[in-house]
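Re: export button greyed out
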Amino acid sequence: MTRAAPALLLLFAACASGGPPGSGTPARDAAPADTLPPGRTRPYVAHDWPHPRALDFPATSFRPPDAGGAAFVAPGGVRAFILPDPSDPVVQVTAVVPIGRLGERAGEAGAGDVVARLLAQEVAARLGTGVTARVETEQEPDLTRVTVQVRPEDGPHALAALVRALRATPERAATSDGGRTGQGYANPIRGLGGAAFRPAVELARRLATHPVAPPEPGRPIPAAAVRAIAMRGLLPGRVAIGVAGAIDRAAAEASLRELTSGWTASSPPASMPAAPATPSHANGERLVTMDGPGLTTWLALGHVVPEIAPADRAAMAVLGEILNIRLNIATRELRGLTNRALLEYPAPGHGAGLLHVRSGGRPESVAPLLVYALDELSRIREPAGAPSADELAQARGGLALGSWQASLDGARRAAATYATEAVRWGTLDRLLGWPAAVQTVTAADVQRVARQVIDPARLCAVVIGRIDEVERARHPRWPFTLDDVRARLHTAR
Amino acid sequence: MTRPPVGAARAGVLCGALLAALAARIPAQLALGDVEEIVLGNGFRIVLVEDQRVPRVAASLWYRVGALQEHFGEHGATHFLEHAIHQGTTTIGVRDSALDARLWRRIWDTEQALIEERDARRNALRERGVFIDELAWPSTPRLDSLRARLYALEDEQAANRVFWEEYNWYRRHGAIFPHTDPVPATTGNEHMDIEVDLPKERLELFFRMEADRMANAVLRGWEAQRFTVLEQFIGRYNPPERGRFDEALYGVTGVAHPAWLDPAGHLRDFAFYDRAGMLRIYDDYFVPPNAVLALVGAVTAAEARALGERYFGRIPRGRAAPARMDMEADPPPGGEVRLDWHEPLEPRVVVRYRIPGVGHADRAAVDVLARVLGSRDGVAAAVLAERGAAAPAGASVGASAGRYGPSWPLGSPTVLDVQSSAARDEDLPAVEGVILDAVDRIRDGRLDPAVLRRVQDELDLEWRLVRSDRRALAAHLGRYSTADDWRALFSTVDERARVTVADLQRVARRYLVPWNRIIGTTRLDPRPAARGIGGGSR
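Workaround output, generated via the alternate export path:
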């Protein structure tokens, strides 16, 4: 690693025309052209700025908002996290409910998505056109989150609309006609990082059944299934609400008491008739190609992994950070094969799922992309691929200072995060202990988990694009073919 | 404002006093006076809003450079440069700087030889064709050999690099980025910005990294980046027909102004970028007076000034950036332009009007006009509802002012698009009729004031969400600084709130006129016979 060593400064000072480093006098750009680096019309600037390694920073003073003080449980069992912020010109109310693909039983595939849509419709209907609101619905495999943002004077209406929608949706579900699973997972290509990225969807369908694989499009969803999953999930003891912004805590608590009064568990829904799970399309092929539109050919390479054990979650997160960087350096920065490679694995709480690399490139880039992705997935398991101290520090910082603080950045984000954690785990312990857990992860932990979760001998790939061209094309520098990829997949250990 | 019947059946549950108590907060304000501006001796500006609620700082550095200053044949070069300047500096991202400098000279010389060879062989290489394959780059054996040499030199360079060192130092110190790409930057027609949010204790890292990037960027791994950026570009052509249509619609929007070009570039030009052109942009525009740093968060003006002086203050002012970014657009051609697309795509109509840029006195009213036309319960929706069963199937009208929507303002003229899909090709004339009727309604002043109030309430909520979000506010201050002046953010917000029905009628009559209009249409079955306009060759 280069430091701001005197020799280095002297080298570039020769190209600069100003005062000596550290003099505080700005250099002037009057250097004769023959002292300039090729191509440049102005010289480099000499400086005495320390290398980042030499910058000595104090510990960060970030503290998450007081979760204990924010917690409130209504008499009926609804949990809430109330974080007033008088300086906020907005009120945000978030409802988190345990409804998603993971909670769908046999015969209920797709019903969680229908309930999420019904919930969003109920919220919108109850807000009406008189309240100016931004409403967002997000669904993860294990839960659904509905967020309403309004001006402070509309805060009470938003809270009332959301709680009443939670209470009304099972009834609405009972009269719903079910419908069919959406077309989203059948669309050609949806964003590399999205749930509907088709190569990942097709890979999941080949390697697993529902609920690891999303439902196939156009399948009928019985009305009884919609009602059953709504009644299981929309219970006062299973939902959590985050309230934040320019609100008064006492008034919010009083509203929650009123709004949830008399909300009790409904009678248990009738059991769904047993139905076969969605069949897997597995046929032993390790590399599947499918024709698709576009100038880019998209791909997913991976296999199914079981739910990550609680003790390994921090190490898995560090592994994910490191692998993501390595994959991008290998495929993007060094070789220009793609704009992006993305490692995905099941998030905590999402159960079993796919560990896989997503990417895309021109036809001639596809085979080398797969080869170098496969190499990186294998390398991190080997002694020579052990994470360096720098890689560990970068990953720990990214997780403990970056994404963790981002999830708790201000009252609104914190209230939504607390409600999510409460529904997912029943406690905030995991969230609040996350920075400490991440800091203790070692290189050995990362490699141990890598050997557990990455099995090169099981990797499969799905490639979607102009397959004729992919088969014909050869990259001028890394002329691998899809047959080379097949061979590597069959011999990988 | 009229309140909705929130859960009317249970409305009595919430007593009035409770509602009043819950709503008692007066919304926090953000005024012009809350923004501090610091100008260093070399012209570098810092615009700052101190917000100590969370001990972090959003830093958003904006350069006034973009596709507006690009020459034909190098469209997208500024976006490419955005990637290229994230490959380190003279002191970052490299192990042995002396070796790096030697390699740079050899790479430069090799590229010069390649350009000479291409020039010498141009008559053999130029296709002079019409139906060219933009991804096929004609070559000669010597060109191939020189390219191989370039690649080999960059392999040597790579062995001496520390990849993504800047990004990884940011990660290590807890940076939050606007997107997950390792290049935390975006480039448009008028700007390039770099956005990083850090714990307040680590803010110095941003100044260290970005001052160095402004002064001492070294374009390493350039050939690999050419393909990385190309991949990013073609990934948007999904399907390719849609990308081609959007590009062509901008192509007929204006004839002599780069504001109508896609800042991501043109497929053809990826073969022609060279280091000299890219360094020209870097040397001309990456100078202190051509940049503004917006800071929002737990930092005081004194702290920001001290950091600014220590890092950016050391960079020479440099020569003034060329005036190419200030070019006025061509006036409307004096006739309506139509684009009937001949590749199959879903049935859709886009009715487009040229509108003034941010900073123009009419722009705030035009922003509101777009919302009034296309919002969920706006004028076009009302026209559709009135037609009842006669309304074209599948129509759903939306409208937006600004090429990238209102959150990405441009100082240059831009477009107001009113568009709708349709269920069938044959419904398209009726859909177009709905859009034009809605436009006529506003031009005639037939607008329910309640619709305008709802739109203004929506805009008010959006502004609240922006000003209460550190990163969004920093980005907005930077955007308006490059499009016009950061003060324009506040005046635009105020003007939008004051717009009247008469204002909308006035700007509609001025801009939403046939001779300022472009209409683009796509069809599932675009064969001429299917459209009933006769046969003939395509």
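Residues 35 and 239 of chain A are 68 Å apart (CA to CA). The button fix ships in the next patch.
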